[in-house]
UniProtKB/TrEMBL annotation:
GO MF assignments: transferase activity
InterPro entries attached to this UniProt entry: PigQ/GPI1 (IPR007720)
Protein name (record): PIGQ acetylglucosaminyltransferase
Keywords: Membrane, Transferase, Transmembrane, Transmembrane helix
Transmembrane segments: 200-219, 270-289, 335-354, 361-388, 394-416, 437-461, 467-492
Single Gene Ontology BP annotation: GPI anchor biosynthetic process
Native organism: Dasyornis broadbenti
An annotated GO cellular component: endoplasmic reticulum
Keyword Cell cycle: no
One Pfam assignment: Gpi1
Superkingdom of origin organism: Eukaryota
Length: 573
């Protein structure tokens, strides 16, 4: 079996010393983590490795020796490096040497304590220690067969480097008995801004947690469970979005440490999503309050509402005549038309009654944009729902009347066929009817059948108007869902530091020569943008129906009500 040695590229110019790392016997692989330089005392090295192993839970040991012949010219050093194998006693003992200015390296692995001591065939694989430690390996979704085995082998290597973070916290400026070379040996990578933010985040999270617990207690109080407030909380999308954002704030302000990398990325995605949402909301608020745009919007709203009401009146006058040359039942047509015209008159009076307060209402509503762009969009959706409430009422009246006639005709049609609906067994059974029942059923069926076209026309017109409003609200909620669920932090990380989100690795041949070990370079393959969105997409509340086209057409035909959104615990009628 070929021995694979994973060597960090940052140690290629290190001074001579010994190689420390982890031996993975299942894969016959050695992961080199650092180089210990001379002078050192073997006992101190063993004690240091014991402490590292106790903290990291990684079986770190001395795997072999490293010789840089460009810096060391004494032959005694090479003999001393060979003798170190008897002190640390690792099988196999790996010897890597750099031959001066030559690009060729020599790498050998010797098993001295076996019955037939011989050198094994070695493949030397270079890897970027910084990228491997900071990256998070994402195994393929279809982990089956060979791909699952390869993913497990790679995860063992990535996990070894990631868990050995304590080993990389020492640099050459530390005053200690052991000098190491690794990716941070020239200085520990850190940021003053990040450290200050870490120190400031503790009291900020404590304050935020207290405020959120207070708000959550108010939301769970019995006052909000009474009928008017509970009804508004379940129907208004603004309340749903505020509750959704409240859950997000509780997640990011929690003092519990992230259990794994996925949980940490979820917290970061929520934090960046909240930050960008609030920033966009503040920009929208600054745009609204500049140049008195709130006043212009309030002055435009009343004429637009009057114009919509006039168009609806013209539409009803058209329906009360002979629409498209159709012969309607005049009595029912006049009753329905006057009924809907009276509702439009009430709606116009209601709008003009609120006209002096609309600018003040919009002024206070604009302030809610500081809570985020998604909250402002949900308020816009609720305002559209309130402004088109008369269209919703028309749709409900028409749908209920049409549904009543459809179910009445279907029941009377079963009467003609000698059938009836068994309520207990939930099925259609045979039944015998007398002459009077058949006569009355025939009269009712005739009346409902001739009145159906008039009712169906009103239902069709108001359903189309209702669908137009639902489409507008659906587009708004799609935008809200996009902002809520898009993993912005992961996408920014994929764009700027793609190695942090690793989908796998690829190997490039650096050197292949007879008598020399095969040298490969391991490079990280980043996740695609689609996989990033699929993996780290944030959950959202269900704000619009996800029915199929067949189910939607069936509901329209039977006259069942269509709501613009479906909330938690609420079934669609």
């Amino acid at each position: 079996m070929v021995l694979k040695v994973f060597f960090p590229s940052c140690c290629s110019s290190a001074d001579s010393g010994i190689l420390i790392g982890r031996w993975i016997s299942e894969q016959n692989s050695a992961v080199i983590l650092a180089v210990v330089h001379f002078p050192f005392i073997p006992v101190q090295v063993k004690q240091y490795l014991g402490e590292v192993q106790r903290v990291t839970k990684v079986s770190v040991s001395v795997l072999g020796s490293w010789s840089n012949s460009k810096q060391e010219k004494e032959e005694s050093l090479s003999e001393f490096l060979e003798d170190l194998g008897t002190i640390f006693c690792h099988e196999p003992w790996i010897q890597i040497s750099k031959e001066g200015d030559s690009k060729f390296w020599s790498c050998s692995a010797l098993r001295k304590h076996s019955k037939n001591p011989q050198q094994e065939e070695v493949i030397l694989v270079y890897y970027d220690q910084r990228k491997v430690m900071l990256s998070h390996l994402h195994p393929p979704l279809d982990t089956a067969g060979q791909r699952a085995e390869d993913a497990s082998k790679l995860s063992a290597i990535f996990d070894t480097v990631a868990r050995s973070r304590v080993l990389f916290m020492t640099d050459r400026y530390d005053e200690g008995p052991i000098k190491l070379t690794h990716w941070q040996s020239d200085g520990v990578e850190a940021s003053i801004i990040v450290e200050l933010m870490k120190q400031a985040s503790v009291p900020a999270c404590m304050l935020l947690t207290f405020l959120l617990s207070l708000v959550s207690g108010i939301c769970r109080s019995r006052v909000l469970k009474f009928w008017p407030l509970s009804f508004l909380w379940s129907k208004l999308s603004t309340c749903e979005q505020l509750g959704h954002r409240l859950q997000h704030l509780q997640v990011i302000s929690s003092n519990k440490k992230a259990q794994n990398q996925t949980h940490l990325m979820r917290k970061a995605n929520i934090f960046v999503s909240l930050l960008i949402d609030v920033a966009l909301g503040v920009l929208l608020m600054s745009w609204l309050y500049r140049k008195n745009r709130i006043g212009h919007l309030a002055d435009t709203l009343i004429p637009v509402a009057d114009r919509v009401a006039e168009e609806l009146q013209d539409l009803l006058q058209w329906l009360m005549g002979a629409p498209a040359g159709l012969k309607m039942n005049r009595a029912l047509d006049q009753v329905l038309g006057r009924f809907f015209l009276y509702h439009i008159h009430l709606w116009i009076s209601y709008i003009h009654l609120l006209s002096p307060f609309i600018e003040m209402i919009l002024w206070y509503v604009g302030l809610s944009a500081c809570l985020g762009l998604t909250v402002a969009l949900c308020i816009l959706s609720d305002i559209i729902a309130l402004l088109t409430f008369h269209i919703y009422c028309f749709y409900v009246y028409g749908a209920r009347l049409y549904c009543l006639k459809i179910y009445g005709l279907s029941s009377l049609w079963r009467l003609f066929r000698g059938k009836k609906w068994n309520v207990l067994r939930q099925r259609v059974d045979s039944c015998s009817y007398d002459l009077d029942q058949l006569f009355i059923g025939t009269l009712l069926f005739t009346i409902l059948l001739f009145l159906l076209p008039t009712t169906a026309l009103y239902y069709l017109v108001f359903t189309l108007l209702r669908l137009l409003v639902v489409i507008v609200q659906g587009l708004i909620h799609l935008l809200v869902d996009l902002i809520d669920s898009l993993p912005l932090y992961s996408l920014i990380l994929r764009l700027c530091r793609s190695y942090r989100l690793a989908a796998g690795v690829k190997f490039r041949v650096l050197e292949q020569q007879d008598g020399k070990p095969l040298r490969l370079l391991m490079q990280i393959n980043p996740l695609s943008y689609g996989s990033v969105v699929q993996t780290y997409r944030l959950p959202t509340y269900s704000c619009y129906p996800k029915d199929s086209w067949a189910s939607l057409c069936k509901k329209l035909f039977l006259g069942e009500l269509i709501y613009p959104w479906k909330h938690k615990g609420e079934k669609q009628n």
